[in-house]
Structures are given as C-alpha cells and as structure tokens.
Automatic annotation (TrEMBL):
This is Cysteine desulfurase. It catalyses: (sulfur carrier)-H + L-cysteine = (sulfur carrier)-SH + L-alanine. It comes from Azospirillum doebereinerae. Residues 3-369 form the Aminotransferase class V domain. The keyword Protein biosynthesis does not apply. One of its GO terms (molecular function) is iron-sulfur cluster binding. Keywords: Aminotransferase, Iron, Iron-sulfur, Metal-binding, Pyridoxal phosphate, Transferase. The keyword Electron transport does not apply. InterPro entries: Aminotrans_V_dom, Cysteine_dSase, PyrdxlP-dep_Trfase, PyrdxlP-dep_Trfase_major, PyrdxlP-dep_Trfase_small.
Length: 383
C-alpha cells in the first residue's frame, strides 16, 4: 500500500462521498432542469449539496455558483468582476495579486496584463508571506481587484487575507481569495471576501467540481452562459460531482469540529525528519501554516542542497508518495515559483519536498516514512 503524502495535489475520495455519489451515477441520473419527478429529485439533491458547501464557509446557498473546479471559479470571479468594472468604473485599471499564487490565478493575471491591465505582483518575505504594508502602498482608488490565496499549496503558509481584504475595501477595490487549500483544513469564513474559490478534490471529494462564492451585490458576469445556476454558469449540472462535493464539505466541517487542528501528525513528521536529516530546514517555518503541510529543504552536512528529485524517486520506490512543489509544475525543470519568491536559489528550491497529509494519514505511516530516512540520508549525502 502506498503511503500517500501528496494531499495538496489531490485527496482520496472519502468512502461516505463515494456512497453519496453512486446513486446519482446510476439510478438517479435525471437532469435537474427536467420538470418531472426524477428531475425535481436531482434538483433537490443539488440544492442540499449547495447548502452543505455553503455551511462550510458560512455562506448562503444562493451565494454559491457551482463550477468545473477551482480554476474555473477563479477565472469566473476575476474576469466577471473586471468586465463589469470596465463598464461601470473605467478608472479602475489596476489589479494586484501575490507572487506565490497558484497558476490558476497567476496565468490569468499574465493574460490580463497582456490585455492592458496594470498588474502588481506583490513579493513575499522569506517565510512566504506578502506584506500588508506593501499592499497598502500599491492599492489606490484606481485598483479594481486584489486576489490573495488563503493558504499556499506548496508551503501551507497562511496569508493575511483579512488584512488584505480590509485594504482593498478601504479603496473601493474588490477582494478575491483562493481558499482551495484552506477549506476543510482550517476555518474559512467567506465574510471577508467578495469572491472565494473552492475545489472538492482537496477535501476528499471528486475532481472536476468546484464552487465560487459571490457576495450578494458583488459585480458578476457569467463566464459560461446558459440558464443553469440561476444564469450564472451554463451547462447541465454535474449532479454526482455536486452531491459528492456536498458530502465532502459536510464531512470536513464535522471533522474540523471534532478534531480541531491537531490530528494531521504533521509536527511528528516534521520534527522526525529534522532529527534524522541534519541540515534539513522547513520552508515557511516562521509563518502560520496549514496543519497538514510541511515543505522541507534537504541539504548535506556542508549545507549544500541535495537533489530532492532523487529523494522523491527513492521515496516513491519505497512506496511513499510526496511531491516537489505543485503537482502541475512537477515534470518541468523550472524551480518552484513559490520557493524562489521566498528567496531560495534554484538549487535550494530543487532540494525541497512537500509532504501533505490528510485526515486519513496514520501515525504508523508517518513512522514508516521516518524509518526510511536514515538510509536515504546515508545514500544521498555521503555517497
Ligand atoms: N488553487 C490552488 C491553491 C490549488 O492548490 C489548486 C489545485 O491544484 C487549484 C487552485 C486548482 O483547482 P482545480 O484543480 O479544482 O481547478
């Protein structure tokens, strides 16, 4: 059995989620827009799931637009907001995000830059945290929107989203947050945001389903047209996906209630690695972080970065799945944009591995990982 410590890339479907989905794949397959009994049952199921997802972030069900994942939710929020503002407040031509966002946001900002928007990418400090003072210095009455993620997917570092939102709002700008990695792991309250992005597959739900919270009254334009989702996102609803997302959200809510933030075993793993690998350092150690994530930089006795890709491959051979930064960037040769933004050199970034735990990770699994390390250390450092 693989020891899976790559839960920031994606998570296993919870058994309860699977059970919730199955009837909607087979017997109860009707289209929620159909006027007959089975259609109405599908519509009810979608409504119940929407309420479960809304409860996780303190939203009203009507404030959620279901999407085909977080990438689409983020594009919908930002493009919709900016297109509306272009018509109503053309003086706002400036948008702000941070250097450590997910490519879902950064690539969109790059495209917006090419379309003529003035873009500020906020730097981060050595722990991966953007400075609110720096944000305050760049946001003006010409700023249309600020987008800052709630928690970073590579390091788990929590961002100062409440402060960032206050700065944006003080200047009449809109605030979007990508809460994909935070939701279901730490409490997330939509109250600070105009737009908030969620994804089911990071909380033991299915892939290809996400949600966008839109504050009542916030500017909005659909990205995909059609009558579904109250005309805010066209296309026949992904009923099994939405029902699975609802089940995953209510499980996550219950789980956070019962377990607080302590049962991820991250600290046991982190301190165990540091004890067994002299010179290893935690990236973002000085910041508040998600309780399930640790990003560790490995070096040899002289402090020279080791090749984390080799470490990853050797761990994989031992049945342990971890990652080098984001899943989407692995395979490429580019060093992590998150770690380099924190001031790591390319070699230091390439010496870093991300371990991300889930609520199903066990102490025995953590200990099994730790028991592999001395041999790996001997091989990679002294070889
Ligand atoms: N935002 C963050 C922080 C993520 O980690 C991910 C997933 O990789 C996404 C957005 C994209 O989510 P999705 O796969 O649902 O489009």
């Amino acid at each position: 059995m693989t020891i899976y410590l790559d839960n920031n890339a994606t998570t296993a479907l919870a058994p309860e989620v699977r059970e919730a989905i199955l009837p909607h794949l087979f017997g109860e397959f009707a289209n929620p827009s159909s006027p007959h009994g089975p259609g109405m049952a599908a519509r009810r199921a979608v409504g119940e799931a929407r309420a479960q997802i809304a409860a996780l972030i303190g939203a009203k069900p009507a404030d959620l637009v279901m999407t085909g994942g977080a990438t689409e939710a983020t594009h919908t929020a930002i493009l919709g907001a900016l297109r509306t503002l272009e018509e109503t407040e053309h003086t706002r031509s400036h948008i702000v995000t941070t250097a450590v966002e997910h490519p879902a946001t950064l690539a969109l900002f790059e495209d917006l830059r090419q379309q003529g928007w003035r873009v500020t990418i906020l730097p981060v400090d050595a722990d991966g945290v953007p400075s609110l003072a720096a944000l305050g210095a760049v946001v003006t009455e010409r700023t249309a929107l600020v987008s800052m993620m709630w928690a970073n997917n590579e390091t788990g570092v929590l961002m100062p989203v409440a402060g960032a939102s206050a700065i944006a709002h003080a200047h009449g700008a809109l605030f979007h947050t990508d809460a994909v990695q935070a939701a279901g792991r730490v409490p997330v309250d939509c109250g600070i945001a105009d737009y908030l992005t969620l994804s089911a597959h990071k909380m033991h739900g299915p892939k290809g389903i996400g949600a966008l919270y839109v504050r009542k009254g916030a500017p909005f334009r659909p990205l995909i047209h059609g009558h579904q989702e109250r005309r805010r996102r066209g296309g026949t609803e992904n009923v099994p996906g939405i029902v699975g997302f609802g089940a995953a959200a209510s499980l996550a809510d219950l789980w956070m209630d019962e377990n607080g933030l302590t049962v991820f075993l991250r600290d046991r793993l982190e301190s165990g690695v540091l004890a067994r690998w002299p010179g290893a350092r935690v990236n973002g150690a000085g910041a508040a972080r998600l309780p399930n994530t640790t990003n560790i930089r490995f070096s040899d006795a002289k402090g020279r970065p080791v090749d984390a890709e080799e470490l990853l491959i050797r761990l994989d051979r031992a049945g342990i799945a971890v990652s080098m930064g984001a899943a989407c960037s692995s395979g490429g040769n580019e060093p992590s944009h998150v770690l380099t933004a924190m001031g790591l050199t390319g070699a230091e970034a390439a010496a870093s591995l991300r371990f991300s735990l889930s609520r199903y990770t066990t102490a025995a699994e953590v200990d099994a990982v730790l028991s592999e390390l001395p041999a790996l250390h001997a091989r990679l450092v002294t070889a």
